[in-house]
Amino acid sequence: MPEPLRWLAIGGGATPEFNQVSIEQDLLLAQEVFGAGGALLFAGGPGSHGVQVEDAEPRGDPLLAALADLFAPRGGRAATYRPTQSSPIAAATRDNAIAAVKQAVAQPGSLLRLYLAGHGERGDPPNQGGLGLWGQTSLRVADLAEVLDAAARPVQVVATSCFSGAFADLVFARGEQAAGPAPTIRCGLFAATAEREASGCDPNPDRAAQEGYALHFLNALRGRDRGGEPLPATQLDLDGDGTISPLEAHARARIAGQGIDVPTTTSERWLYAAAPTRGKSRPPALPEEDAVIAALSAALGLTREGEVAAALEHVLADTSAAYERLDAASGRADEAYRATAAELLARFPVLDDPWHPDFAATLTRHRAEIEALLDTSAAYAGFRAAGEESAAAQAEVAELLARSARLERLLRALRVRILAGRLKGRGGPAWARYEALLACERGQI
C-alpha cells in the first residue's frame, strides 16, 4: 500500500480569466516548502494553457479596446495566457477535489495538510461559501465538511482566498455550529475572515509587486520574509522550540501583511462559539497572539481594546464614505455609458456585438467615423472621466481597507487573549478541544 499523502494542494481559477499567475506561483512555492509526499490539482490540469500573465505593454487594436471597455468590460484582456509550469495530477474541479480528499483521508495516518488557493466565494451561511474551481464549479465548506466528518486522520486546512474564513466552520460537524464539534480533529489557517476579501490573485508575474497571505505564510515556514530574504529566528520561532510552526507562520502574515487580509483560524472560531462572554480569565500561553499584539500595538501606537475598537470604527466610517463616492462615480459612468452607446448605435447598430456577421465590415468601413465620434463626444468624455473617478475611489477604498485590516488584526488578537483566558478558566471539554485545535494548527499532532 502506498504511503498516505503528507499534503494535497488544490487551486487555480474557475476560468482562465480568473487563473492569475500569482496563484500558480503560490502553489509552486507551496510544493517547494512542503516537500515530497504531496499532490497538486491545478486549474485545467496537466498541459492546460490557461495561466493569465499581465502584458508588459498594451497590445491589440486601440479602437477595439475602447469599444470593448464601453460595451463589454471584463478582466484578462490586458494579458496573455501560457501553459502551466506546474505538474498537476489532475484538473482542479470540484469532483476531482472531493475524490482526492476522500482518498487522502480514507486511511489512518499523520496530519494531512490541505492547501487551497484561488478565488473564494462568500456564503450565507458560511458553510455555503467556499472556493471557486475549474469548470466554474465550487468546493463548498459543507461539501468538504461531509468528507472530513468521515476522515480517518487529522487534517490541517490552509486557505488563501477571499472569504476563506468560512472554512473555519469545519471545526463543527457538517460545518454547522448547531451540529456541535466535529467528530474528527481538523483545523485551519485562513487568509481572511468569512466576510472579508483577501489580497492576492495578481496577473503581474513580478513577485516583488505582489501582496498576499501566501507570500508571507509560505516564506515564513522556510525562515524568510515575503521577498525570500532570511529573517532572524526570533521573529518567527515565537515559542523558542527551534522550529517554525504553521501557526507561527500565520502570525507572521498577520504582522507583516500590508494588504487587506484579516487572517483567522479554527481555534479563533471555536473561541467565539465556546468561550464564556464574561467571567474570570486565566491567560494561557499564546506566544503567537502575544507577538501579533506586541508588533501591531507598536506599529499603530495603540494598546487597549477600547482605543483600537474606536480607531477601527473611525476608519470604517471613512471607508463607508469612500464607498459612497465610488457608487456615485459608478452611477455617473453608467449614465455616460448609456448616452455614448445611444450615439454610437444610432449610426452603427452592431458595434455592441463583435459576434455579429456585420461587425468586422462595419469597423473596417467606418473606422474613421467611429474614431471621430468618440474623439468629439461629450458623453464619451464623461464616460472616461467617470472611469477615472471610479479608479481613484477604488484606490481610496483599498487604502482604507488595508488600514482597517491592521486594526482588526490587532483587535481580534486582543479579544482572542481574553476569550482564551475565560475558556481556560471554565475548563472542561471545550477547553480541551481548543488545546487540540492549537496543537493541530501548530502541526503538533
Question: What can you see in these coordinates?
Answer:
The chain has 445 residues and is an alpha/beta fold. Helix content is 47%, strand content 10%. It is built from twelve helices and eleven strands. The strands form three sheets. Strands 2-1-5-9-10-11 form a six-stranded mixed beta sheet, sandwiched between helices. A hairpin with an 8-residue loop joins strand 6 (120-121) and strand 7 (130-133). The protein is globular.
Supply the key terms:
single chain, 445 residues, 6-stranded mixed sheet, 3-stranded antiparallel sheet, 12 helices, globular
- Are there runs of 5+ residues with pLDDT below 50, and where? none
Helix content: 40-55%
Report the structural category. Answer: alpha/beta
Content of β-strand: 5-15%
Give me the side-by-side strand order of the main sheet.
Answer: 2-1-5-9-10-11
Terminal Cα span = 23 Å
**What sort of overall outline do the alpha carbons produce when their principal axes are compared?**
globular
Biggest sheet features: 6 strands, mixed
Based on DSSP secondary structure assignment, what is the total number of beta strands?
11
DSSP summary: helix tally: 12
Mean pLDDT: 96
Write the H/E string, N to C.
EHEEHEHEEEEHEEHHEHHHHHH
Radius of gyration: 24 Å
